Amino acid sequence: MVQNGIDRRSFVKKMAAAAAMTAAAAMFPGIIFASEQLENLPNGGDLDWKKGPCRFCGVGCGILVGIDKGKAVAVKGDPNSAVNKGLLCVKGYHQTMCIQSKDRLTHALVKKNGTYVQTPINEALDIVANKMKQTIEAHGKDAVAMYTSGQSTIPEGYVASKLMKGAIGTNNLDCNARLCMASAVTGFLTTFGADEPMGCYEDIDYADYFITWGNNMAEMHPVLFSRMLEQKNKRGAKIIDFATRTTRSSMASDKSILFEPQTDLAVANAICYEIINNGWVNKSFVEKHCNFSKGLTNIGYGTEDKFNFNDQPAGINFEEYKKFLEDYTPEIVAKYSKVSVMDIKYLANIYGNPNNRVVSYWCMGMNQHTRGTWMNNLVYNIHLLTGKISQPGNGPFSLTGQPSACGTAREVGTFTHKLPKGVVMNPKNRELAAKIWKVPVENIPSKPTYHATEMFRAVDRGDIKFIWTQVTNPLVSLPKTSRYRPGMEKDSCFVVVSDVFPTPTSDVADVILPASWHIEKSGLYGNSERRTQHWNKMVDGPGETMDDAWMTIEVAKRMGYGELFPYSKENHVDEIYNEYRQFHEGEKHGMAPLEVLKKESGVIWPYVNGKSTQWRFNAKYDPACDNGEDFHFYGKPDGRAVIWQRPFEPAAESPDEEYAFWLNTGRVIEHWHTGSMTRRIPVLHKAMPNAYVELHPEDAIKLGINNRDMVKVTSRRGSCTLPASINERGLPTKGQVFVPFFDEDLLINDVTLDAFCPISKEPDYKKCAVKIEKV
C-alpha cells in the first residue's frame, strides 16, 4: 500500500528516525529538536489515526496510533496535546511494537499438577472467584488481597477498590505506586492538606530556573526535559542538576551539584537557613498563609515486620524554626554533604532572589527515600518561605513515574488507606463511598491494613492466603525480592496474575489471566499535571484477552456481588467513569465530563465552569479560593500551608568496612520499569540488551575492573552479577555504584533493602550498602 507516495515500510522507518531525533534531544546537551522538525514526515496517508495517551511514564504525552486493517502499524505524537506538542521519546514512538510478541499471553493458564494448562477464560475466572470465596470463608476477609498499579486505568482501579473495600469489606488493596509516589502524596498532604502539584507543565514556559532534585529528567522524563532545553536556548532559562551521580541530565544542565546520599535533607535545611539569614523571606506571604510545625524524630526505618508509626505533629513558631536551622549553616552542612559552601549559597540565592521564577522538579530520588515525606516537606519549605508557589513559573512539582499513578492510585485511591475521595479513617469519606457504591457503611473498614511492602511480608508469613496482582510485576520491582519470591511460591498462598506477557511474577502464579494491552481496550489515565486523558479501544486483542476492569467485574459477579457492578461489557468504561465523577464534584476537584475528554487531548482538573484550573490555591486562577486573600491553601482547615521542621537523619544502612559501597538503582531511557514490555521491542532491546553496574573509574582501577568485566554486587540480603560500565552513560561518585532494574535476568532488587519512609511507607531503592568484587 502506498501512502502519499511512500509505502508503509518507509513510513514506519521515518517514524523511527523521528524517534532517534527526539531521543537525541534528551540525551545530548544543547541539542533541540522542536516539534516543527517533525512536520515533514508523512502523515500516514490513509491510516486511521486514533488519539490516546502514551502507555509509559507519568508525563502523559498524547499519541496518535495509526491503524491499518485492524492492526496498529505506527505511532506519532499528538500535535494537539499541550503536554508534548507532537513530540515523543524513543519508548513512545515504538510502544505498540511489543503487542505482537510471540510469547504474548492470549489465553488463561491454570496450574494443574505443577504444569500450566490452557483453560477457557470463563473457567479460569470461576476458579479465581471460588478460591477468593473459599479463602474468605476459611480464613476471613483479610486473608485475601489485591495488588494493582499506577499503570491501571481509572476504571480498573475504581472497580478493584469497590470490590475489595465496598463489597468484600477489606482494605487489603495497595498498588505499586506505593513504591514510587507515596512520599509525594504524604508530602503534599502534610504540607497542604491536598494531594498533587498546584502547578502544571506550562510553568516550563515561564520559569527562569529549573532545579532538579535527584532527578535524571533527560532519561526519565525526556519530553519535559526537551521542553526545558528549548526554554534554555530560547530565552536563557537555566537548569541546575542536584544529584548523587552524573547523568545525561547533568551534562545538559548549566550547573551540576553532587551531594552525598541522604544529605539532601541537610542541604535543603541549609538553603532555608540562608534564605532567613539573608532576609529573603517573603514575610507578608508567610505571615498570611503559613504555619510552622514539627513532628517526631528518629522515627525508624520500617525494616521489621508489622512496623507501625504515627506522627505527633506539634505547632512551633518562626523563632523556634529559625533556632532549629542554626545546626544547618552552609559551613556545617558542607562538611558531610560534600556540597561546597559556595554551592549551597548559590542554590539559596536562586530561590531567595525575588526576581527569579523557580520550579523545583523531582521524582524517585526524593520519593524513594527513608525520609521521603520529610524531603518533600523541605522543598515545599523553600518555596513557601520565598512565596514562590502557585504562580506561573514558580512552584514545587513532583513528577510521576507511571501513566496513571495520579489518576488511578492517588485520585481513585488504590492504596490501603484511601477511598475514591479521602481516607478510610474519615467517617464522612466512608459515608460518601457507601452512598455511591450502595453498600452499608459498615462494609468499609475504618483502618488501613497492608501497604505494599507489608502486604508481601504478610504473604511470606502466611497471613495472606490469596493475592491477585494486576498490571504489575512485583517479583522484579519489590525491594528485597530475595525474601518475597519464596513467599509467593509457598503452597499456603494462591496467586493470581493478570498480565499481557509472562513475567517472573506470573511464573509463580496458580492462575494467569491474559490481559488486554493499552490500545486493546478503552480507558482513562491521569498524569503528573492533573490531566485526565481518555481513549477508545483501537484494535482487538488476541485470543481471549480481557481488560482488567472487566476481569474484576466478572469475578465480583461470580462472588455474588453482581448488583454492585451493574455495568455493561460494551460500555463499562464510560459507566464506571460517570459513577466515579460523583466523588469529586465541586470546585476543588471537579473532573471533566466524558464528552469533553473524548473531544480533547486531556483536561486538567479541577475542571470548573468549562475551564481547567492550571494553578491551584491562587485566587487569580483557582475558583475554589474563597478566603478573600490572594492565596488559599484550602486543603487545611485554616487555609494555611505548613512549614515543617524536619532534621537530617542518616540512611537506614550505610557503607562500612565489609560493604564499602553505596548502591543506587533506577531506570534508563530505553526501558520501562521492569522491562516486561520494552524488552520485547527489538530496537529498544538491541539498544540496551542487559543491565550493568556503573562504577567510578578510580574505584574500578583499585578493584582491577575494566568495562564489560563481570562484577558481583553483594549486600546482606543477596547478590547479583552484572557487566561493568565505566565512563559510559553515567558516572557515580567514588564509593557509589548504580544499577538499572529493568532486567529480569539480572535481578538487582534481590540486593536492595526494604527500609521505607515510616510516614509514606515508600521503600528506599537509592541507598544500601554493598560490596563489589570482580568475578
From TrEMBL:
<feature type="binding site">
    <location>
        <position position="521"/>
    </location>
    <ligand>
        <name>Mo-bis(molybdopterin guanine dinucleotide)</name>
    </ligand>
</feature>
<dbReference type="Pfam" id="PF01568">
    <property type="entry name" value="Molydop_binding"/>
</dbReference>
<dbReference type="GO" id="GO:0050140">
    <property type="term" value="F:nitrate reductase (cytochrome) activity"/>
</dbReference>
<dbReference type="InterPro" id="IPR006311">
    <property type="entry name" value="TAT_signal"/>
</dbReference>
<feature type="binding site">
    <location>
        <position position="89"/>
    </location>
    <ligand>
        <name>[4Fe-4S] cluster</name>
    </ligand>
</feature>
<dbReference type="Pfam" id="PF04879">
    <property type="entry name" value="Molybdop_Fe4S4"/>
</dbReference>
<feature type="binding site">
    <location>
        <position position="741"/>
    </location>
    <ligand>
        <name>substrate</name>
    </ligand>
</feature>
<feature type="binding site">
    <location>
        <position position="473"/>
    </location>
    <ligand>
        <name>Mo-bis(molybdopterin guanine dinucleotide)</name>
    </ligand>
</feature>
<keyword id="KW-0408">Iron</keyword>
<feature type="binding site">
    <location>
        <position position="766"/>
    </location>
    <ligand>
        <name>Mo-bis(molybdopterin guanine dinucleotide)</name>
    </ligand>
</feature>
<keyword id="KW-0479">Metal-binding</keyword>
<comment type="subunit">
    <text>Component of the nitrate reductase NapAB complex composed of NapA and NapB.</text>
</comment>
<keyword id="KW-0560">Oxidoreductase</keyword>
<feature type="binding site">
    <location>
        <position position="54"/>
    </location>
    <ligand>
        <name>[4Fe-4S] cluster</name>
    </ligand>
</feature>
<comment type="similarity">
    <text>Belongs to the prokaryotic molybdopterin-containing oxidoreductase family. NasA/NapA/NarB subfamily.</text>
</comment>
<keyword id="KW-0249">Electron transport</keyword>
<dbReference type="InterPro" id="IPR041957">
    <property type="entry name" value="CT_Nitrate-R-NapA-like"/>
</dbReference>
<dbReference type="Pfam" id="PF00384">
    <property type="entry name" value="Molybdopterin"/>
</dbReference>
<keyword id="KW-0500">Molybdenum</keyword>
<feature type="binding site">
    <location>
        <begin position="498"/>
        <end position="499"/>
    </location>
    <ligand>
        <name>Mo-bis(molybdopterin guanine dinucleotide)</name>
    </ligand>
</feature>
<feature type="binding site">
    <location>
        <position position="176"/>
    </location>
    <ligand>
        <name>Mo-bis(molybdopterin guanine dinucleotide)</name>
    </ligand>
</feature>
<dbReference type="GO" id="GO:0043546">
    <property type="term" value="F:molybdopterin cofactor binding"/>
</dbReference>
<dbReference type="InterPro" id="IPR006657">
    <property type="entry name" value="MoPterin_dinucl-bd_dom"/>
</dbReference>
<comment type="function">
    <text>Catalytic subunit of the periplasmic nitrate reductase complex NapAB. Receives electrons from NapB and catalyzes the reduction of nitrate to nitrite.</text>
</comment>
<keyword id="KW-0732">Signal</keyword>
<keyword id="KW-0574">Periplasm</keyword>
<feature type="binding site">
    <location>
        <position position="749"/>
    </location>
    <ligand>
        <name>Mo-bis(molybdopterin guanine dinucleotide)</name>
    </ligand>
</feature>
<feature type="signal peptide">
    <location>
        <begin position="1"/>
        <end position="34"/>
    </location>
</feature>
<feature type="domain" description="4Fe-4S Mo/W bis-MGD-type">
    <location>
        <begin position="47"/>
        <end position="103"/>
    </location>
</feature>
<feature type="binding site">
    <location>
        <begin position="262"/>
        <end position="264"/>
    </location>
    <ligand>
        <name>Mo-bis(molybdopterin guanine dinucleotide)</name>
    </ligand>
</feature>
<feature type="binding site">
    <location>
        <position position="57"/>
    </location>
    <ligand>
        <name>[4Fe-4S] cluster</name>
    </ligand>
</feature>
<keyword id="KW-0813">Transport</keyword>
<dbReference type="GO" id="GO:0009325">
    <property type="term" value="C:nitrate reductase complex"/>
</dbReference>
<keyword id="KW-0534">Nitrate assimilation</keyword>
<dbReference type="GO" id="GO:0005576">
    <property type="term" value="C:extracellular region"/>
</dbReference>
<dbReference type="GO" id="GO:0030151">
    <property type="term" value="F:molybdenum ion binding"/>
</dbReference>
<protein>
    <recommendedName>
        <fullName>Nitrate reductase</fullName>
        <ecNumber>1.9.6.1</ecNumber>
    </recommendedName>
</protein>
<feature type="binding site">
    <location>
        <position position="180"/>
    </location>
    <ligand>
        <name>Mo-bis(molybdopterin guanine dinucleotide)</name>
    </ligand>
</feature>
<feature type="binding site">
    <location>
        <position position="91"/>
    </location>
    <ligand>
        <name>Mo-bis(molybdopterin guanine dinucleotide)</name>
    </ligand>
</feature>
<dbReference type="GO" id="GO:0005506">
    <property type="term" value="F:iron ion binding"/>
</dbReference>
<keyword id="KW-0411">Iron-sulfur</keyword>
<feature type="binding site">
    <location>
        <begin position="665"/>
        <end position="674"/>
    </location>
    <ligand>
        <name>Mo-bis(molybdopterin guanine dinucleotide)</name>
    </ligand>
</feature>
